[in-house]
Amino acid sequence: MPIEIRQWSSLADAARTTLLARPALAGGQRIRSDVRAILAEVRRNGDGALREFGRKFDKVELRGFEVSRAEKQAAQTCMPDVAVAAIDTAIANVTRFHEAQRPLPIDIDTMPGVRCERVSRPIDSVGLYVPAGTAPLPSAAIMLAVPARIAGCPTRVLCTPPRPDGFADPAVVVAATRAGIERIFKIGGAHAIAAMAYGTKTVPKVSKICGPGNAWVTCAKSLVASDPAGAAIDMPAGPSEVMVIADASAKAAFVAADLLSQAEHGADSQVLLLTTCESLAKAVQSELDVQLASLARRDITARALEHARLVVVDSLETAVAISNDYAPEHLVLQCRNARDLLPHVRNAGSVFLGEWTPEAVGDYCSGTNHVLPTYGYARNYGGLGVDHFLRHMTVQELSREGLARLAPTVVTLAGLEGLDAHAAAVRVRLEHTP
Amino acid sequence: MPIEIRQWSSLADAARTTLLARPALAGGQRIRSDVRAILAEVRRNGDGALREFGRKFDKVELRGFEVSRAEKQAAQTCMPDVAVAAIDTAIANVTRFHEAQRPLPIDIDTMPGVRCERVSRPIDSVGLYVPAGTAPLPSAAIMLAVPARIAGCPTRVLCTPPRPDGFADPAVVVAATRAGIERIFKIGGAHAIAAMAYGTKTVPKVSKICGPGNAWVTCAKSLVASDPAGAAIDMPAGPSEVMVIADASAKAAFVAADLLSQAEHGADSQVLLLTTCESLAKAVQSELDVQLASLARRDITARALEHARLVVVDSLETAVAISNDYAPEHLVLQCRNARDLLPHVRNAGSVFLGEWTPEAVGDYCSGTNHVLPTYGYARNYGGLGVDHFLRHMTVQELSREGLARLAPTVVTLAGLEGLDAHAAAVRVRLEHTP
Questions:
Q1: What is the helix (H) or strand (E) element at residue A112, kind and residue range?
Q2: Which residues pair with B221 in a beta bridge?
Q3: Could you tell me how many CB contacts below 8 A there are between chain A and chain B?
Q4: How close does chain A come to B142, measured CA to CA in Å?
Q5: What is the ipTM for the molecules in this complex?
Q6: Tens digit of pLDDT for each residue in B215-238?
Q7: Does the CB of B5 have a partner CB in chain A at under 8 Å?
Q8: Which B residues, 133 through 162, put their C-beta within 8 Å of a C-beta on chain A?
Q9: DSSP string over A264-278
Q10: Can you give the pTM of this predicted structure?
Q11: Cα dist. B288→B262, B284, B332, B365 in Å?
């Protein structure tokens, strides 16, 4: 059954809200209690719990969790040269774009004798999670490992689920290793998050965990982030999504291909088209059918298309306004003057300008990061970058003269707040005779 | 009873851990269920719930929550000139330091024909929370409002508890107004967080909530942050804390004054001294007694001192290592060559160098932000800055030639991941004949 084409101008407010509502995240309460039990068990039994969950969820009995040097060499050997070259090209582009994100230190005198600085420090230890699920994701290893290496985090570990044969996916191993990860563990799911957040005999405890994952992984990340003994996380997450805005100049085949490449990620993926051109919407509707038929993952993709949206709008301005409300993870602009729309785009994770920029290039190798805010979080989060692996620390240094200059302000404000020890800490210094 | 002086080198590992353990955050479960009920009630009854909680918690019946133009004028009129001047000096210094934090856009070609950019967008709407508690905090209004103004967030609202007479604290009103806040609401506690996260008839819904608060406010922030329908938050929070590292050159009176100015914040504040000089530790011990006696808030301060720590260490290197483990919110270095230690400081919110830099200057007006990571969160979070009110958005634009150059990489990586619609989105473009 073809996806219905809707006319935005004919919809009432409530219908518009429903049309753009994201699917509710299912199973919240049950997943939460399952994940709580997993976290508790890993804290209690460490490696023993990891072994038990590996048997239960990954159906595999591992002798050791860590990918050995021999396994890394075997992965490298079995990988075709063309694959290694593709991995290296992706690493090079992602490195170029993320190198440019290193923050410059700030060092200014806000007043004579009052020096204020902002310096950056890498997070001491970070844990990267690369899911496997329906497909292994070497690209995720690159997107996580490169910014962590550029930030200079001294300890960088990566967890990824083992295959049924007990090996890690070789492409993930090769990509992670070439992107600077030394320790890779074959642990997947909520128990991998638990291992990195709390540490076990084998897996080091980390300060922050980054990376995508399914509902159990996402829930585990949110739980450890709210525990002071746990770890910080990159951002909350939901299913992946793309919104395409297209005018009459767009080619239906390109638009359909972008919608399908998002839809194939998973049955819960969201794909939306906003177009000013009804005939384009119809052409996309047919192209989706045609192109879908030849896809390997057509079953998953077809299920995602069940909640796809094709919407005709009266102008590109309306389309951008809808997009700003929806806040898509990926926003593809296939319009004659795509760049002219960019200044009006406020809420989106990553934007793809023009007909030669399919979303797939951002997923792999243009250089931008593919770990992006989903589920409307683009309203208040940006995508992953070097700053997620750093913290800013401020520094101040006053001379005696600087303190004397600032003293009346401190004393007056301390008086307004009734905090006289604050005033006293200034006075005791200025009253001191050397 | 004087605070015991401990010798680090004579302590076993377990005793060291205990010595540096932060006090457990009390009442977690009860607070959590109270706060859940408050959030639910505000979502259900909006302004009616706010009115009900205002009566219950603030003991005040308000006609309107919003600070009127007349109340703002009255606050400005009742404020002495010297107070307005102090507020303006603080705003000016905080503005200078935060203006320097505006991120520069990134725009590079990672390959010929592959243009990647990072641009910033202000968060559309932010809610700032200024607590009252045992003291009104105009400085907090400045620390929140200035970076939000510099980021350019179009909607900036501020909530602060009403006084029993129904007015907001005039210093908070004047500071917030002069720092660019137009809408101030007299709402405090968990229900203020609920109002901003979900919106009511009177209070606009915001995308992100920033600012300090007590255990109820902190819990409310954490709950709305984990709800996709809620709001993002600045960072998790615990009680305020300072660690002072001092050598034999330090003056006991200055060190004691800094410890006391932190201790007066609240009975749960943590203050710690690490020193290489036992006689300094003893002198600080006596100075604390002497200075405490003359403080207005000596009861609160004395209770905080009950869990203070005075520790003698064998070297400044050891002191810095302990500090990096502890990750203090404020780190004061009163050593002869304080700046030489700075490169070794990894985990701290804000650092105060040398004897003329009391922590109080950072609380008010040096220019750095006083909203800082507490409770060990300095390991993975930095203090508040302009970037908390912005998001980065990435953009890519390829030419046909750029896409052709990148195509083999996309196709190969898509093959490794079994995602053939990703490869197809590239092929369909390159096979297209115009």
A1: none
A2: none
A3: 420
A4: 11
A5: 0.96
A6: 899 999 999 998 889 999 999 888
A7: no
A8: 134-139
A9: TT-TT-EEEEEES-H
A10: 0.96
A11: 12, 6, 17, 25
